[in-house]
Write a structure and sequence with these properties.
single chain, 412 residues, alpha/beta, globular
Length: 412
Amino acid sequence: MPTRTLLNWFETPPSSPPASSSTALTEKPAPAAAAPKDRGLLRVGIPRVLNMWSTHQFWIGFLSALGIDPRRIEFSSDTSEEQGRSHAMGRGTVDCCYPVKCMSGHYGGLLARSKRKIDILFVPMIYTLPSFLGTHVTASLSCPRVMAGPENIKAGFLKERDAFAEAGVRYVAPFVSLADPPVLPKQLHAGFKDAMPGLTLEETRRAVDAGFRALEAWDRRLRARSRELLEQCARAQRPCILVLARPYHMDPGIGHEIETDLQARGYPVLWAQHLPTDDDLLHWMFDADIAAGHIRSPLDIHDVWPSSYSANTNEILWGAKFAARMPWIACVVRLASYECGMDQPTYSPVQAIVERSGTLFFSFQDLDATKPAGSVKIRVETIAHYLGTRAPDIIAKKLAVNPSACPLIEPP
């Protein structure tokens, strides 16, 4: 699976001057009191947090289409204790959700830059998310805490004085519905029109289209890579691991690099958000359930999760179903942050779906700021041990109940 060890997760397109900018990149930025900068000279800072882990390519495509030089789109560093100590002290928020609390360090780190100083701090409040499950689920809502996180964290930077104004940074945090493309241009135009004078609604609409094209291309690339990995496992009769988690658990400071430790043991790792969704593979796995009337399509999760409103939750439940049917996924690792209210109701259903197929299941349900290095190491050793001894039997058992002529081994 294309994880951080294989791809630069927050990569930007190849460097090139934006087509809409006529200003040379070597031109010095205008003084603070002067007219607004040419868009090609604006530097946009984006905290590497929450749903940015799954939508960042949309924002790169969108901003680039507006004339922002891709080389001037700056993401914050990964979450770390040092980041929090240096940039979040005194700006804390009362919230049990660590992925939200740690945002303060990302904000502070971007504002404190002495080199490559940003002009705009962009933190969208994402209400709905694009999802490959589409109309097969009721809705694709973001977690309420995650959606409101930018407003929550902003308060800490305005509590005593306006830290954004002091840094000469414009704070842009529009409320956006990424799962509702017709509405999105209006939302983003309202959010950016003051930061980018002269911005039109039609220009914003074209940029939104460009953003979706960039996100779809990235998604196709990752799903194709995931299928290649499964094909390699199928032909070698080799086990792999599926991680069921929220996208921000890819952040080393939140997921504690558990998947990286497992990869170091020689086991390929897939993430549920980017499993292959090719028709031939899905029908090979799910046609029996469709014929029996349990589901209406391979992407239907109503048989296991009728309350399909939350985007990340929906994809985790579907990933569990995928793992239960895919022979070479011999182990599922579930990651969840401490006291995550959205994840808690899913713990038992996900475990039941996975274990009913004989697939190994391990969970880390209390991840927080402190990495329990010793216990993580012991758990990883345990997972590796059971995979080493039981994977062949798991693969054989799951193959026995699946149709013959698997498209991973015998492409049409």
